[in-house]
């Protein structure tokens, strides 16, 4: 069975500082991995996805993530936080066995201090 | 290009009642998935519809049922509502055969059960 663990329900950074949101996955088959962002009272927006191509994936808004199979990790980073990055971030995993069933982590709330 | 739309935006129901939520997929998409997002949690997969049939189902009771229409739109029905059914219900659409497992999410329907 697939699962996702996001380390840290809340992360606080200063504006301009590095953002690092951690995600570890469990999957018996090669996974597809995703990061989504959710702003208050809104749906989910895809930030980036890993689909077995390049292990370093670049997404929107300056975010990127690196797939590390040996560590079963897919951590999300951004070199310099902006106030507008404050939101809830979800890591998710899907598999190759058909369909689009996606398993989400519990989420990490990012706070950005001025 | 219209994205995923959901209706209604909010609704309040009483325990024991029944509710129907609606979703129109992104133009060109043929698959609809439904997720339940309780407060402070990640989305949980309910089920997925393709070609008007339920293709996959998560760990939800039979009180949760759905339908997909020939135009690919979908409904989620919940019978005998419980207080624990209060959540944000998200609809996501995708395209079968598009091998990147990317889903587009709607803004959600906020259901409150009193």
What can be said about this structure in brief?
The complex is a heterodimer of chains A (114) and B (114). Chain A is mainly beta. Chain A has no helices and 11 strands.
Element layout with pairings:
The complex is a heterodimer of chains A (114) and B (114).
Chain A: E1 3-7, E2 10-14, E3 19-26, E4 32-38, E5 44-50, E6 56-58, E7 64-68, E8 73-78, E9 87-94, E10 103-104, E11 108-113
Parallel strand pairs in A: 2-11
Antiparallel strand pairs in A: 1-3, 3-8, 4-5, 4-9, 6-7, 7-8, 9-10, 9-11
Chain B: E1 5-7, E2 10-13, E3 19-24, E4 31-37, E5 44-50, E6 53-57, E7 64-68, E8 74-78, E9 87-94, E10 104-105, E11 109-113
Parallel strand pairs in B: 2-11
Antiparallel strand pairs in B: 1-3, 3-8, 4-5, 4-9, 5-6, 7-8, 9-10, 9-11
Description:
- The complex is a heterodimer of chains A (114) and B (114).
- Helices cover 0% and strands 54% of the residues of chain A.
- In chain A, the strands form two sheets. In chain A, strands 2, 4, 5, 9, 10 and 11 form a six-stranded mixed sheet that branches.
- Chain A is mainly β and 114 residues long.
- In chain A, strand 9 (87-94) and strand 10 form a beta hairpin.
- The mean pLDDT of chain A is 91.
- Chain A starts with a strand and ends with a strand.
- Chain B has 114 residues and is mostly beta strands.
- Chain B has strands at 5-7, 10-13, 19-24, 31-37, 44-50, 53-57, 64-68, 74-78, 87-94, 104-105, 109-113.
- In chain B, the strands form two sheets. In chain B, strands 2, 4, 5, 6, 9, 10 and 11 form a seven-stranded mixed sheet that branches.
């Amino acid at each position: 069975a697939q699962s996702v663990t996001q380390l840290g329900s809340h992360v606080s950074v200063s504006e301009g500082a590095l953002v690092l949101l951690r995600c570890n996955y469990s999957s018996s088959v090669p996974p597809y991995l995703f990061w989504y962002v959710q702003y208050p009272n809104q749906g989910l927006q895809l930030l980036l996805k890993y689909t077995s191509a390049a292990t370093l994936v670049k997404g929107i808004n300056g975010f990127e993530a690196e797939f590390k199979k040996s560590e079963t990790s897919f951590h999300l980073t951004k070199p310099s936080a902006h106030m507008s990055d404050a939101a809830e971030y979800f890591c998710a995993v899907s598999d190759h066995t058909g369909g689009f069933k996606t398993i989400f982590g519990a989420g990490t709330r990012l706070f950005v201090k001025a | 290009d219209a994205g995923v739309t959901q209706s209604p935006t909010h609704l309040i129901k009483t325990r024991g009642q029944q509710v129907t939520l609606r979703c129109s997929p992104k133009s060109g998409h043929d698959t609809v998935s439904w997720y339940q997002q309780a407060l402070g949690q990640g989305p949980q997969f309910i089920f997925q519809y393709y070609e008007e049939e339920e293709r996959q189902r998560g760990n939800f009771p039979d009180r949760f049922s759905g339908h997909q229409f020939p135009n690919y739109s979908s409904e989620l029905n919940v019978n005998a509502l419980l207080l624990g059914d209060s959540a944000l219900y998200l609809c996501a659409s995708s395209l079968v055969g598009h091998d990147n497992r990317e889903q587009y999410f709607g803004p959600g329907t906020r259901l409150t059960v009193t």
